[in-house]
Structures are given as structure tokens and as C-alpha cells.
Amino acid sequence: MRTNPINILIAILLLSTVVSGQSQQRKNKERPNIVFILADDLGYFDVGCYGNPYNKTPNIDRLSKEGMKFSQAYVASPVCSPSRAAILTGKHPARLHLTNFLVGSRIDSASRILPAPWKPYLSGKEITLAELLKLQGYRTGIVGKWHLGTADSIQATAQGFDYDRIISKNGLDYYNYGITSNNKMVFEDDGSHYLTDKLTDFGIEFIETSKEKPFFLFLTYSAPHVMIVPRADKLRPYFFSYSKHGGKYNPYYAAMIESLDDGVGRIAETLRRLGLEENTIVIFTSDNGGVGLAELGPTPTNVEPLRAWKGHVHEGGIRVPLIFKWPGQIEPDVVNENYITGTDYLPTYLEILNTKIRHDIDGKSFLSTLLDPKADLRRGAIFWHYPHFSNQEGRPAGAVRLGDFKLIENYETGEITLYNLRDDISEKVDLSRQLPQKRNELYAMFSQWKTTTKVNMPVPNPDYRQK
User: Fold this and answer.
1) Rounded to an integer, what is the distance from CA 323 to the centroid of its chain?
2) Is residue 143 within 8 Å of residue 204, measured between CB atoms?
3) How many Cβ atoms from other residues are within 10 Å of residue 425's Cβ?
4) Residue 187: strand pairing partners
5) Which residue, of 263, 406, 427, 442, has the fewest CB within 10 Å?
6) CB–CB of 411/387 below 8 Å?
7) CB of 458 within 8 A of CB of 115?
8) Contact, 43 vs 52, CB < 8 A?
9) What proportions of the chain, in percent to the nearest 5, are helix, strand and coil?
10) Per-residue pLDDT tens digits for 75-105
11) What are the residue boundaries of the structural domains of the chain, listed by start?
């Protein structure tokens, strides 16, 4: 029996297509999609899976069940702009001299010092995670808050993002705002589109138009940052349950967090609908601690038993929720006790992609603890440097953590305090006199770090008059 040459050719073509498809699938599996969801001013205990009994966060809680929850995740700064810069560059904000939020200019005329000189933007020469991922074939997108500079050379699209939908006009409001792309207005709200929902819409649009290749979405919600403006239809259940909690929680803030949670759920559903869930890393975290004082309205939240809040180098300002989901690679429903910080995301992603880690960054990969949470990460020392006066009563200070111990230096007074976070998460007991050797060890380490990093320090106040 003679074989038809045309049938042989068709079979070869079909086999070639199957092999090519399998090769592409393997290649894409080696390059998982990344969806990094960053909340704004979300406190450590503001979501259900971190112990909040009032705020309704079923989608974030589900993400925690399906992924890994970190109990000791930190940001690199207690305020937003430097924290975001650290995530994108892997460098400490002190090295970048971007140490305050962009419009931060608060001083205390009665203090002996003035805030440190600083750089109110992320320099265009810095290499971002988006730029590095583009080199690996990723399509990159940012939706929401940029807050790292608006000039053409330092806007998001100049820093590696192919797609951008950036909050611009009325950035503190949740209605009557503007969204820009390449610094050009693409959407202006007329009071009918809740900002958190609209950002989710743009995030979904990016995923739907990027599904043919690996993608990186940096979805940076403004919620629940003040002003506290919730959707009215979310409030009723929180009013009815308010009295059950002794007035401890803010119903308006809770409703804002519920809208944030809705967004997380819609993103997750989009990934499932498009068949992308199994090959997508999803990260959920916050840019700094919650707001613990009244600001543009009533106090939004508290982070007790952590000490202080946003703008402070105490735990309440720098410890944040972190959930990391990676189907088939990390165990679900696991609590990871190792500590990591905001500079560590970039080297972790690079190691996941088997890409050489740059030597000029401060972060360290935590891939090993994602794959084996029981293993001791041995992260080493992590540092904080906030040489400014925050609008949440934070004073110029710095800190270092190594193992269970954390040292804080007050830049105004020179006071040094030492805490054992394993035994004293609230930082109530100063051990600096009881443990002078540990105090001296950490202080020497912190001083050396400040010198080698060439940090920007506060300067004397020429008008200061000692009383």
C-alpha cells in the first residue's frame, strides 16, 4: 500500500505544531506571570486572615488559604514613595536618597535638626523590575499610584512599563479623579465611577490584552489611603455590627477595604477565566503601616499590639501583611515565620527566572523560603532610615533588625533603644541597658551601614534655641 505524500506532509506539520506548542508551554512555565497587588496604608491587622474580625475580606483570605502568609514581612520605609522605589529597584531608599513621600516637607521649627536633604523622585538611571522583566520577554503594566515622579524621563513608561494607567487629578479622592497614560488624560470621572473599581477594570484590561505572553502587572491601589471615601452601598453591614466591637473599628474604612477585596477577587477570577491561574504568581501586600492618627478625617485604623503606625520605624509603621501565591510551587495555607523586606522582591523574581542577580542591589532573594518555609532563611540584617518628620508624628530615626533583636536610633536625641521582637512584639521593654553587648553590636552594624550606604542625614537647625 502506497502512502500519500500529502498525508505525510500534514502529519509532519501537525507534529511540528504540537512540539512547538509544548515547547512554548514549557517556556511560559519557566516564566510565570506576575501580578503584584499593592495596597496603600493598609495596616498589618486590617484583613481577616491577619486576625481582623470586623473588615470583610473573603477574597484576600482565600488568597491566603491558597498561598503563603508571611507573619514578619516588612517594607523598606514607613512611607509610600521610598517603599515603592525599593520594591521596583531592589535598592534601599537611603541608597537612592529617596527617603520621603514626594510631597513630604514637614519640619519642626522647635527641633534641633532639620530633615535630611533628599531626592523627591526616582532617578531615570535606576534599573527597575519592569525593565528587567522586559528583557525576559514580559509585557509590563502599572495601574494606580506611581508617586515616583512625573517628568517625561522618570514617569512609569520611561521606567520599563509598556502599559500605564496612573492616578493623577484628585489623587486623594475616590470620585472626580483623573487617570493618565504617558502623562495624557485617558479617563476623567464625573462622580459615578469609584476609583478602586476603576483601577480593577484597568488591571483586567491589561491582563486580557497580555495573555499571549508572560506579563507583569503592578496593580497599586490607592485604597485604603485617606481620604476615607467608601462606596455608600458597602456601609450598611458595618453600621449594624459596629456596636459589637466596642467602637474599635471604622465602618467607613472597612467599606473601603471591602472594595479593595472585591478588586482582588475580580483579578483572581479573571486569571481563572483565562486559564492563567496555574502559571501566575500573585502577591498581595501594603506599602507601609496603617494610619493611626486622625488625618483628613477620623482615625482610620489601629495596628495594636504593634507600636506606632505609618511614618514611624516602630513595627506598626513597617510590618505589613504579605501573601504570596504560586500554584504548584509553594505549599498552600502556610504561615511563613521568616522575615523579609521590600528590597527582596526584585532578586527573588530574578532567581525564579534563573537570571543573574545584580550586585548593586540591597535585597536578597527569599525563593528558598517560598519553596521550603520550614527552612531558616537567614536573611541577615535589614535596615530602615527615615530622616524626616512625618505627618503622622514620626520623628527622624533609623533602625536595624538582626534575628530577634531590633535597635532604633533617634536622630534628634541620639537615644538608642533595643527590643527583642520574639518576646516583645509591642516594643515596650527597652533592653539597651540590660544587654549592652547586643546593643553595641547592632549599633556598630547600623553605623557601618549608614557610612557605606552614604545615607542622607538630618542637618542642624540654625534657628534652634535650647530652652
Assistant:
1) 11
2) no
3) 15
4) 179
5) 427
6) yes
7) yes
8) no
9) 35, 20, 50
10) 999 999 999 999 999 999 999 999 999 988 9
11) 32-374
Which strand ranges, in their side-by-side order, compose the sheet holding 139-144?
184-188, 178-181, 163-167, 139-144, 215-220, 33-39, 280-286, 319-325, 68-74, 334-340
The residue with cell 509553594 is 330
Report d(CA 345, CA 347) in Å as an integer.
6
Count of Cβ atoms closer than 10 Å to residue 23 Cβ: 10
What the block records as the C-alpha cell of 112 is 534641633
349, amino acid identity: Y
Query: Helix or strand or coil: residue 59?
Result: helix
Give the DSSP per-residue string, 347-386: HHHHHHTT-PPPTT------HHHHH-TTS------EEEEE
Residue 176 class from Cβ within 10 Å (0-12 exposed, 13-18 middle, 19+ buried)? middle
Cell 479622592 found at: 173
pLDDT < 50: residue spans in the chain: 1-3, 5, 8-28
In angstroms, the CA 221 to CA 263 distance is 9
Handedness of CA 340, 344, 345, 351 (dihedral sign): negative
Long-range contacts of 377-384 (CB under 8 A, 24+ apart): 377/338, 377/339, 377/340, 379/338, 379/339, 379/340, 379/341, 379/344, 381/445, 381/449, 382/74, 382/339, 382/341, 383/92, 383/94, 383/446, 383/449, 383/453, 384/76, 384/77, 384/78, 384/313, 384/318
Q: Are 112 and 464 in contact (CB under 8 A)?
A: yes
Q: CATH classification of 32-374 is 3.40.720.10, yes or no?
A: yes
Set of cell numbers at residue 360:
548593586
Q: Tell me, what's the pLDDT at 29? A: 58
Which pTM was predicted?
Answer: 0.93
Beta strand 280-286 with 33-39 is parallel
DSSP for 111-171, written as a single string: SSEEPPP--SS--TTSPPHHHHHHHTT-EEEEEE---S--STTTSGGGGT-SEEEEE-TTT
**Cβ contacts of residue 436 below 8 Å, gap of 6+?**
none
Distance CA 60, CA 69 (A): 11
Would you say 145 and 222 are in contact if contact means Cβ atoms under 8 Å apart? yes
Question: Three cell numbers at 87?
Answer: 520594591
User: Which residues have a Cβ under 8 Å from the Cβ of 350 and sit 6 or more positions away?
Assistant: 132, 356, 357, 358, 365
Place of cell 479623579: 177
DSSP state of 5: H
All 3 cell numbers of residue 71? 507573619
